[in-house]
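Review this fold:
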Amino acid sequence: MDINRRKVLALGAAGAGLTALGVVRAQPAGAALAGPVTETVYLTGTDADNTVPWDFQVTAGRRSGEWSTIPTPSNWEFHGFGSYNYGGTLVPEEKGNYRHTFTPPASWSGRRIFVVFEAAMTDASVKVNGTSAGPTHQGGFYQFRYDITGLLRLGQSNLLEVTVSKESSNNSINDAERRGDFWNFGGLFRPVTLQAFPAARIDRVAVNAKADGTFTADVALAGVTAAGRVTAQIRKLDGTAVGGSFSASVASGAATVRVSTTASQPALWTAETPNLYQVELTLANGSGTALHSTATRFGFRTIEVRTGDGIYVNGKRIVLKGVNRHTFWPTLGRASSPRLARQAIGLMKDMNMNAVRMSHYPPDTFFLDLCDELGLYVLDELTGWQRRYDENVGAPLVAAMVRRDVNHPSILFWCNGNEGGWNTALDDDYALYDPQQRKVLHPWTTFSGIDTSHYQTYTSTANKAAGNTIFMPTEFLHGLYDGGVGAGLNDYWKVMNGAQRSAGGFIWAFADESVARDDRGGAIDTFGNRAPDGILGPYLEKEASFATVRDIWSPIQLNSPDYYANTFPSAFDGTTKIQNRYTFTNVNQLRFTWQLVKFPNPGAGTGHTVTAERTFTGPDVAPGGTGSLVLGLPADWAGNDALGITATDPTGRVITGWLWRIKKAADYRSRIVVPGSGSVTATENSTGVTMAAGTLRITIGKSNGRLTAVSRDGTAVSLTNGPALSVGTGTFTGLSHFKDGSGWVVQANYTGDLTSVRWRLDSSGWLQMEYRYHRTGNHDYLGVNLDYPESKVRSVTWLGDGPYRVWKNRLRGVTPDVWTKQYNNTATGASGFQYPEFKGYHARTCWARLGTTEGNITMVAAEEGLFLRLFTPAVGPDPQTATAPFPGGNISFLDGIAPIGNKFHGAASVGPESQPNVAAGDYHRSVYFLFSA
């Protein structure tokens, strides 16, 4: 980041009046620069959170022909102008006309003054005081500037006019940018500034700082009319000097100079250790008078692609845990802010990601600044989605991207377009502006020794990861709706993390790119199944895969107790195995906290109560190593319900948490299901047997042995028609009933897969449903169903894994606790947008309390491993293969549930966990019901 652009303040105003501009002479932290600096002022606001109104008119669509004002920077569609368009729909007649008046300081006399556009979408023609500033700029995501020194009236009012054409007059730009698989917008969506340089100046700097401390800076100069010298000083960000100054002579008329030095044992930059420095550079004349000073941030680090081996940073092989991210917000389009960028990066870090791909264009500079500061590896990408720029228009865009972004240590690779949208004639251009000579990728294919192929099946992923070429898919596990991303990731990551030539990969995608349409009352437009691809919702709501990714990609893995059992083995001794998946961080740099907790009973609240806890430093386990985490639990630890552990990284960020149940389902059943001391009676008629306990009536049908009616206090409760096998047959053979202590039993017998159902009503009001069935072979699900009207449901509170629903191939990330959620009918990514979704499969349920208009229905499991199914989720339009089957009925008690596919692959192609359930023979369960007001 250029320090001269780091801390600037804009004061602007629209209309014909004079504008007072705040001129900022930026200084680096801790030290004053030696000479005059570049003075920068904003004509627009600094970002989408801090805008300045400009005069505006759109030529087509909503409010066309009407002069008004618009906040800048912004995309005009979100302020009632023009039309919304997804890729492929071209609107060449839609243009935006901007006008803005400003007064540059009279003190700028003798300086070179540029108007700088961080981006304009898509073609931009610029006039100052009625005169063209230069050729129309083409390309919607790139920084460009005009030297307007000769057009300005210093100390007086000036008029800036900009016409932005939503579509380009160059068809290859439309092909690369406007016909891509993403939303198209128009406008000045990134800031516009004035930059005033001294007449002799440092125009830009390209740094190459390696892990061994060697440092060079290629300095581009302008306006040098006499011999002089460029002097440099490296500093820490607090201003402390690193070594002495170093310099190089400059000849009269020189356009470039290189300065170099070697720093002793610098702190290296990685995504785990984002150590930054800055270099101050001063251009001086022959007598030593400083003419211009500037500073830029950088990091010492070395990137290597070792052919047939892997990707190395500072000599260590890295595995990228990445995501594809569009710059997007539902009410802003591609306009953004540091606040939104920090929020996005924070969520990536919360998911234990260490990398992000800029799909499919270079981002705002502040996003890259934050990647440098917070620690993320970056793939910076030239636009080109399945179509490419022509060489004549693409070459200056490559130059613009690399010149702007070259000093960011976070950038590992340049991407020359996407999925065939690369012009190979541009491959060599990147190195012209990058002294680090970072490799260029062709995302979707093999180039620069790296196979980046997209959306491979599990089998092809395993084969490629075990092959001879570095494998790093730049898109995998497509996140349409609730399929993909987390579903299958556990299997994929076992092969992608474990193979020598696997360099990780990038999930598609970070967030749903869905527009809040102001022309539709704010309704979310997902453009069918094209936009809702995210781990997060449009407003960054956490969908279920968020927790799955966080768990699987945690750099600290605790390998016992077992993730899937989620309960302790009887021989647990207070020690758990630990695996360190960091590349540069020892476990002894982390903090761990354990908590012993107890869960409330149904109706007594949610969450848990902490009974004891301890925080301690992690053991000495080197990166890539394994060891043991000795917890030091108290002697009475087993009397609690669960044990929780959290790990915190050196920055204070919680890496992830684990919570294991100590007590089993049978323990909670004994605690909750308390027998009564009264009696139960029974009556029989031609259709059923009715058991009665107080005001509770339970009727079992004589024709099928199923629950046919429930009433409490004379009011019906609509739970009926079960248990019915979710898969298999059962032929009813007979029914008997009899008194059983303080209860009454109705016994139903069957032939076929369902063998028996035993109903027992206790005088306490608890109804036991005990069933047995037999199945073998492969099945999508296994268990029994009942019916209950969905329209009567209001909420559910349960002790089990949550708060999200699960699939067979997405069981990680959920944790046991007492959770609650209100009924919603969210179709993930398509409608509703309430998370967690209410409906679906819920893992390892011990008890659940369904809140309904007819009262509460409490259900308690007697055995471990129960999946509770609550209704069938809604699905967005055209899910392709991002679907999963559900059994009949709408409340199910299951021993096996279905996996889900993603947009491009059915579940069968996504790995071992995504295969059908293999039925094991005989199954037996008891579920208890209590019906209360």
Observations:
- The two ends are 63 Å apart (CA to CA).
- Residues 796 and 821 are 6 Å apart (CA to CA).
- Confidence is low (pLDDT under 50) at residues 1-30.
